[in-house]
Design brief:
Layout: E1 2-4, E2 14-17, H1 20-29, E3 32-34, H2 35-40, E4 55-59, H3 61-67, H4 70-91, E5 96-100, E6 108-110, E7 117-120, E8 126-127, H5 129-134, H6 136-141, E9 142-147, E10 156-162
Parallel strand pairs: 1-9, 2-5, 3-4, 4-5
Antiparallel strand pairs: 2-10, 6-7, 7-8, 9-10
């Protein structure tokens, strides 16, 4: 899986970000909307992103994934969220859609071939997150978001990103 350390994820595509430092700027800017509000756009999304910048931070997806059954959560991501991401990326070409998580990075595990990211819930169940959220685009286009600061030998993973889902 490739990595990116630029901020392109803030201006286009969709991402999952679990690094609180990276999410903080969007909270301070007033760029946060609830998952409920995003879902309400299903039949009539706004013409322009309803936030001040080029990034929409969506809150609430983690709660849905923790409270629904695993199959129900995967179906919800696949049938309700993925089509909405596709529609929004076709409308808002210069806007990044970011799903913010409070879970630490250890809740997100890559499969051995690094083609899928699974979310490990508190009850130890797993959700095939990237596969159901991004479909086939996850296999071919998913990238690790990294921050390479300081003198750490390895870049720090802050999330996952897909430039465009089909």
């Amino acid at each position: 899986m490739d990595i990116i350390s630029t901020t392109v994820w803030q201006r286009r595509g969709s991402s999952i970000v679990f690094d609180q430092n990276s999410l903080g700027q969007f909270i301070a800017d007033g760029s946060v909307i609830s998952l409920r509000q995003m879902i309400s756009w299903k039949n009539s999304p706004p013409a322009d992103p309803p936030v001040p910048g080029k990034t929409i931070l969506i809150s609430g997806l983690e709660t849905v994934m923790e409270t629904m059954g695993t199959q129900e959560a995967e179906a919800f991501l696949s049938h309700r969220i993925r089509p909405l991401i596709s529609d929004l990326q076709n409308r808002w070409h210069d806007c990044g859609i970011v799903f913010g998580f409070t879970a630490n990075r250890h809740a997100f595990r890559e499969t051995p071939r690094k083609e899928d990211v699974r979310f490990h819930r508190r009850d130890k169940e797993q959700i095939h997150l990237s596969e159901v959220l991004w479909g086939g685009s996850a296999v071919t286009g998913m990238k690790r978001l990294v921050r390479s600061e300081g003198e750490k030998p390895e870049p720090e993973i802050i999330g996952y990103y897909v430039a465009r889902i089909s």
